[in-house]
Structure of Undecaprenyl-diphosphatase:
Amino acid sequence: MIDQLWLEAALLGIVEGLTEFIPVSSTGHMILIGDLIGFDGPPGRVFEVAIQLGAILAVCVAYARTLLRVVVTAPTDPAVRRFILAILLAFLPAAVIGAFAHGFIKSVLFSPWVVAVSLILGGIAILAIERTRPTPRHTSIATFTPRLALGIGLCQCLAMVPGVSRSGATIMGALVLGVERRTAAEFSFFLAIPTMFGATAYDLYKNRDTLTLDGAGLIAIGFVLAFVAALLVVRSLVAYVGRHGFAPFACYRIIVGTVMLALLAWR
């Protein structure tokens, strides 16, 4: 039984890391796989929170030089200050709406059925946006206007529905608003840092009475594997989407969502 739990924890850590920053919904995958394998790990939500922190750390490591330059040059460089403002404005809608809708989202929308349908609809939306997106006008985050950043942030709020995908909503919203693919993907990475830290901190606060360190080994293996898998994705995704676009992810979403609907209906 212990060996099975370790394998399940490792699987969930890898899945979290691989899916957090691509437009396929890490939360949706965690819900579906957790439902399929019946994962019975550490009590409370400490395992889920820990592996998400592993994915966040991967972004911080991958872009450590950029983040350090932002901190050092912000007082003197107007372009860096515009970069920071864009991230903060894009983060604001999720922070406000998430705080008010947290209970409804967790109690009502966290369902395998919701995830499966969202995966399919999101895949169709990605294919449509890839075909109809306007000619890119923005190729640098430092040139984002406050209105553009806030618009992308509002799009990110769609990801509060499990299965939509935070990165997918952010990137597709940016494409519709005229941002070039590679820049849209990078902005999604940077926006993930305050968004995921905020969501994680809020989850910890809301579940503070149930969090324990039981199963520390399971937590550790999930955290490490989530970090490693996410680091691989972050370092390769920008180059990949620059060459291939997002259509492969859309097809994957539609296939997984359809298969899950069939399994759920059969079960």
User: Anything to note?
Assistant: Residues 2-266 form one domain. The mean pLDDT is 87. Residues 156 and 170 are 5 Å apart (CA to CA). DSSP finds eleven helices and no strands in the chain.
